[in-house]
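From the thread on structure requests for the teaching lab: each student submitted one protein with a one-line request. Submission from student K.M.:

"Model Ribosome maturation factor RimM from Comamonas flocculans, tokens only."
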Amino acid sequence: MNETPLLPAASLPHDAVEVGRIGQAWGVKGWFKVFAHSPEPEALLATRDWFLQAATQGPKSPFTGTVHLAVREARVHGDALVASAEAIADRSAAEGLRGARVFVSRAAFPAPADDEFYWVDLIGLAVRNREGQALGTVKGLMPSGPQTTLVLEYADEEGKPRERLIPFVSAFVDRVDLPGGCIGVDWQADY
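Reply posted by the TA:
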């Protein structure tokens, strides 16, 4: 079964990004909590077209595959978001969404300000230092207190996979060239 009477079956957009998961019902009028993967959930707040995939653990989902959720309203509430949707009319329907993974189209993200970047756009970029030495490829980003840290993957002299951490701050990052697929840094391989 790929469709419920409430949520139509859908395909994930080609540029879909997983941005959160649905928590418990919130109130009795069909609202539900959403736990964003990012501390700044602009992508969830910017679009009303969410795509859900059933939870892999927890309660049995009333749908399988991917479904489209037309969001009526979403707003920050404490450490999470709360949202309501056209097709979710009561607490019972909201509980049925619990654990679902939430995806949105990357094209729906609001444009970042100058010198701001979405983490998803940095993953996969090559990192080179001022001397042109390849330091690795961005595998992920890690919040570490007041700053974010780039997590690079590279192979050592013996070909073994290794990780390198570089603070993602202007003192070490010279430039981010998204179209060119590269980040330039003031960093050495032996740091």
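TA comment: The longest helix spans residues 42-46. The longest strand covers residues 66-77.
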